[in-house]
Design goal:
The complex is a heterodimer of chains A (193) and B (656).
Chain A (H helix, E strand, L loop, with lengths): L12 E4 L4 E11 L2 E10 L5 E7 L4 E5 L84 H4 L5 H5 L10 H8 L2 H10 L1
Antiparallel strand pairs in A: 1-2, 2-3, 3-4, 4-5
Chain B lengths: L1 H6 L11 E6 L6 H4 L8 E5 L17 E4 L23 E6 L8 E6 L53 H9 L18 E3 L8 H15 L6 H54 L2 H13 L2 H21 L1 H14 L5 H29 L10 H6 L26 E3 L3 E3 L6 H14 L22 E5 L7 E11 L11 E12 L10 E5 L6 E9 L11 E11 L1 E2 L9 E10 L9 E4 L4 E7 L2 E7 L4 E2 L5 E4 L7 E8 L16
Parallel strand pairs in B: 3-5
Antiparallel strand pairs in B: 1-2, 1-4, 2-3, 4-5, 6-7, 7-8, 9-12, 10-11, 11-15, 13-14, 16-20, 16-22, 17-18, 17-21, 18-19
Helix pairs in contact in B: 4-5, 4-9, 5-6, 5-7, 5-8, 7-9, 8-9, 9-11
Chain lengths: 193, 656
Amino acid sequence: MAERPNQNTESRKYASWGPKFRMDFNNPQMNADGASIYTAYGFTDNRDIHLQMFNESGMFHAHNDRTIEIVGGTKNSGGDVDVEIVGMNGEINITCMKNGAVRIKGSNIILVADEDIDLQAGRNIHLIGKNGKTVIKNQDVSVDGLAGNLVASTIGDFTQRAFEKSFVAPDFPGLKDFVKAIPAFNSVTESLF
Amino acid sequence: MVEESLLKSHFIGRDGFRWWVGQIAPTSAWQAQADGGGWGHRYKVRILGYHPYNTSELSDEDLPWAGVLMPTTAGSGGAQFAQSAQVAQGDVVVGFFLDGDNAQIPMIMGSFGKTLYTPSTEYSNPFAPFTGFTSKIKRPDGQRDTRESTGQSTEDQKLQRNLNQQHINELNSSKGPGQAREIQASLAAGQTVTHADTCSDSFFPEVTGVLDSLIRSIGQGGNFFGDVQNAAKKIQNLTNNFVGTIFNSLYTKLIPILQTGLDILYKKVYAAVLAATQNPFLAHLAGVKAQEAMVPPVRNLEDQLLCTGAKVVNNLGSEIKGLVDSTIMEVANFGSCTAEQFCGSLLNSVIDQATSGLGPSISGVSKILTPGFSLDGFLRSSSDIMSAVQGFFHCNQTGGKCPAVKQWTVGYGPKDRANANLDNIMSNANVSNSNNLSNNSPYTNPGCASPSSCGGPKVTFFGGNGSGGSGRAVLGSVVSNSSSGNSSSVARTASVIGVEITDPGSGYTQSPPMVVLEDSCGLGYGAVGRAVVDFNSDSPTFGQITGVYMPSEGENYPVDEIAGTGENMVTGTAVVYPGSGYSPEDTATDDNGTNYSLTVDGGRIIQATPINNLRVDSSPNIQINTETGTGAIIKPFIGTFVPPATEVVSVIDCVS
């Protein structure tokens, strides 16, 4: 493959402080989202890289092969804002690519949505309060599921729903004793099953 | 001598000024100073015309110390304004003697830059060029081009690129001897990120993203085996969603089947008892008892449904690892069709394990199931069983919470999501089943995602709050790969200089769609387009895509040799920012010679219209000619060239 012709190298400048850190300005070579306005690039003896890049697409890239630590507010007091992250128009996405967890901890955790809050899990969702109460409140509150005491006492669990159009209430203990009390009935039905 | 000494002032410049050129001796000759044991910035320097060309007459260690003059922008250290000197062994430096003709106190004023042709070899003889790298400043190994030079050439201090490994390899394949190799700036470039999304089932795009990223990471020097394990574990975790969806669909569909079965059972027993006893009450009680007898097996089925899903996922670990291993071995390009095969094979395993795990419980309720009911057949009969019914949409909810950008490619930006064809997955599952491919390859056609030929770049619009839209990529800055002597698989490549809209879409009333420009071989990179939408509710094109401008044109997009590249011109403009203070007399021109008339309203530019049709080969920059206005940005739309109408030379009146 060949690079595009007529690249503007006239304004390219760079500064390199030894092999492990360099900066480059107005480099016309094409990246995935355009040529770079500035790039800061460093790497360790173990080839772990650090990259900052601002490209013609307008996107700013900050990559670090190892941990990125952001600490704010060491000298702030309780009511101050230590870290402020703002997306002006679009979304903020936080994704653990492999099998990491997203952990958020605080004295209070407040999630506020102008419209919906969706919680979705591939496996379990646990809502656990230790020393208070759990309130679920809205205009329309409903549950759905296969089993569990909340399901059983509302829409019915799997077995209840399977039997809901039958003459048997699966938790109706009196029926069995009532039927057994009729000898003639038993003699007939025993032969059927 | 005495006279000479007496005539000297011993002030620099007043007794003559002696320039010199010399070479910094190997660092080993001044190691203690380099290690911080000395003072100031000082270097041992061998000076042409003053010092011998060999070390036997004058060793490197015995050379004089040279101080360094710092530029005024570097600071002296006073008030802690300071910079380090950047002088390395082997550097050829120029300076003067502080002591004039005595030539014992050299000062370094500057250095000659090394060129691409300066040897970068180890030290051999005085004044022969040699490398600046030492035992403590090591030559970079892999993360950077090793050449030591400074200059304006693109080969000088070659910058690492933020591209995926495929693009890096493609570029390097066309490099000639002596050219600096491309080096990937970040291993993360090209990895696919799938965003949180409760609006649609993301299992398929997630798996596609994980495996695509894994395949791309092969040979990149990361922790590959760890990556494989992580990918397998990630897919196993994702399978919770997949299996959960299947089990939820299964129990939901089983309930009406069981209800019907119980009804039939009751009627059957009722009829038999009524025939035997002629007593409807007894017949009824017998029917009820028959139904009641099914409570324990149904309850058992419920219990098994509850725990079998988790067991299936837990048991899939080695199965998934095997599928991932097969993927690495067999698939060069991962795409939707390979993902369907992978997911089909995985689905086959899920169905096998679900059938095995639920088999005894299903047998327990066989009396009330349809005669001949087979759980395996039931699960394989319909792709509906896999489609997740999302419970998050009710009458008062909107799609506003659904991510416009569902996937992201690191370094590249937004990506249109891979979509699953559930029927294809199901048929692949059945193929796996019939071929008994368990623990073997999931792939019947592992090369399906590799195109047979590379077409031109395609334009995709997605996201935004509207729908539809399509366009044609307008190419420019064409490069002939045959003439450039490289081994490219395509004859010509080009940049994307614009997008010609063929379908403006509709409904984009709040946010424009994303634009993705991709070719089927994934050769091109760097083209970034921004869709412009008409937000004026009074306009006939309200909510439509009116054009696409290109913040970056990219390169290496294959030219479709059938469609060709054609000739192009500026067909319109987008006023990205209207600015302020402009005058109606202001005009604009671009660096290709096209002139523009401006419509100014209240000092703001609201429209710019090209006046003359000129061919363009790249997206031109539009400059506004104004003495009063500031802040406006106008970007061109590029489309097919239309020759200007022929001028009227004369009018011949044939009537009179």
